[in-house]
Amino acid sequence: MERALETIARLGRTFLAAIERLGRATFFLYEVVIATRPLARRFFLVMQQVYAVGVLTLLIILVSGLFVGMVLGLQGYNTLVKFGSEQTLGLLVALSLVRELGPVVTALLFAGRAGSALTAEIGLMKATEQLAGMEMMAVNPITRVIAPRFLGGILAMPLLAALFSAIGVLGGHLVGVGLLGVDAGAFWSQMQGSVDFYDDIVNGVIKSVVFGVVCTWIAVFEGYDAVPTSEGVARATNRTVVYSSLSVLALDFILTALMLGEI
Amino acid sequence: MAQPQSDSVARDILVDIRDVHFSRGDRPILKGITLPIRRGSVTAIMGGSGCGKTTLLNLIGGQIKPNSGTIRVDGVSVPDLSTRELFELRKRMALLFQTGALFTDLTVFENVAFPIREHTRLPEPILRKVVLMKLETVGLRGARDLMPSELSGGMARRVALARAIAFEPLIIMYDEPFTGLDPISKGVIGKLIRELNQSLGITSIVVSHDVAETCSISDYAYLMGDGRVMGEGTPAEVQKTKSEHVRQFMDGLPDGPVPYQYPAAPYLEDLMRWNGR
Ligand SMILES: Nc1ncnc2c1ncn2[C@@H]1O[C@H](COP(=O)(O)OP(=O)(O)OP(=O)(O)O)[C@@H](O)[C@H]1O
Ligand SMILES: [Mg+2]
């Protein structure tokens, strides 16, 4: 009996702690959003961060995009050829990438590479008193450190997703047209004819902007909230990757359902 | 917010700490400490590890708020300031962290330029002159292109000092400026503290447990223990007092009124317990 009560109590505590943390993260987001206003005059701070994210993730995004596109080409061809419609391979590759795989895989790679680096950087700045030092110099670290990274991440995500999709299409072309003998003209014209700007491209971009906000928010919050020791920073980095990945996958389902109008 | 003090003695006091209590969780750290600091002086605050010296500096800097008591800097009550007013005050107040707290992603030059870039819009050529002047003061003009990871502990502290004096502050608070330095570097830092105090009239608060070095540069010394002031006076006076507490610290005795042990259950009882922690 006592055991059971203890278990329930522990469950409650864990749940309350999680809710409390979510509340703190929300207040933090509010502070960060307010702090982005002064950045209009110092936009180079944001561009520096876009550049930093780009340096970290560009190569991995390009390589992954190429392989994902090549796999799509292979798998798509194998299915389509059974119905004699392998000429629509270009369409299949482009739609899969622009609507789903581009935003989602980019966000997962972003969380693993740029998100974790962001958390570690901010966490270490906290642990080495750089953030406190900034405050003592009458500089608000949320404005100077957090907000530029937040905006930079949000701007970088759709750019990276677009690159991922573009190189993926090339990968599909390489396999479909180059190896398997799909007609190049059909590959491109099918794609051109049936990919819709609003339904496909814009929806894909909306997805990756949402993922950008969520992934970067999680990354900067975990860094800022980290226990200021090496172990605390390591844990925070770990949490960033797990929470970001789960959020991206869950949000992707919700967004897709909304966009297709099925719910 | 500002309530100017009336009598002339009080006007001479730049930092006025009166009956301040502060606790972390249930554990009291400061238990009614009173510690006035005179304008234009070098004041030493000494005391054992963990007695709350850094906490005291954080209270003066407004990073944490006391549970009770008053903290006034230049007549202004620090805990009552709004964030904006606090930031205004901090432009005239510098804190040198125990760890240096240099920005690891910026060069020495950019570290010193940081507060100037943030608070002014000096054109680049003038900014460069100002930064080089500050670096010259601490003797590190030649190290301007190094990264913080390439500096020794003593050099890092001098860079932090150059950054702290960017705006010629009213007060500089040094947290353990001598720890981990060789005798020569200690001498260099000590001389810098003294020079900044004399040439710019900066009021200096030096927190340290290095008795000899600190006494040699300060005008007045406080000895902290158990969250209170245990002894005070000019360095010569403090070194001569008979109070057991002060003696233990000044002579470096391991056990005395200040216990060697962190508070704990009786030793034997603790060892004999067979479970739990
Ligand atoms: N963030 C914190 N959370 C909880 N307790 C803390 C925290 N920071 C300090 N303390 C406690 O407060 C007490 C005073 O710490 P403080 O850093 O002021 O000591 P100190 O006098 O500066 O010591 P040292 O000479 O070692 O730097 C210590 O006993 C420490 O355990
Ligand atoms: Mg300390």
Automatic annotation (TrEMBL), chain A:
GO terms for cellular component: ATP-binding cassette (ABC) transporter complex. Keywords: Cell inner membrane, Cell membrane, Membrane, Transmembrane, Transmembrane helix, Transport. One of its GO terms (molecular function) is phospholipid transporter activity. The chain crosses the membrane at residues 50-77, 89-111, 170-189, 201-221, 241-260. InterPro entries: ABC_MlaE_roteobac, MlaE_Permease, Permease_MalE. Pfam families: MlaE. This is Intermembrane phospholipid transport system permease protein MlaE. Belongs to the MlaE permease family. It is a multi-pass membrane protein. It is found in: Cell inner membrane. Its main location: membrane. The keyword Mitochondrion does not apply. Part of the ABC transporter complex MlaFEDB, which is involved in a phospholipid transport pathway that maintains lipid asymmetry in the outer membrane by retrograde trafficking of phospholipids from the outer membrane to the inner membrane. Probably responsible for the translocation of the substrate across the membrane. The complex is composed of two ATP-binding proteins (MlaF), two transmembrane proteins (MlaE), two cytoplasmic solute-binding proteins (MlaB) and six periplasmic solute-binding proteins (MlaD). The keyword Cell inner membrane applies. It comes from Candidatus Muproteobacteria bacterium RBG_16_65_34.
From TrEMBL, chain B:
Keywords: ATP-binding, Nucleotide-binding, Transport. The keyword ATP-binding applies. SUPFAM superfamilies: P-loop containing nucleoside triphosphate hydrolases. Residues 15-251 form the ABC transporter domain. InterPro entries: AAA+_ATPase (IPR003593), ABC_transporter-like_ATP-bd (IPR003439), ABC_transporter-like_CS (IPR017871), P-loop_NTPase (IPR027417). PANTHER family: INTERMEMBRANE PHOSPHOLIPID TRANSPORT SYSTEM ATP-BINDING PROTEIN MLAF, PROTEIN TRIGALACTOSYLDIACYLGLYCEROL 3, CHLOROPLASTIC. This is ABC transporter ATP-binding protein.
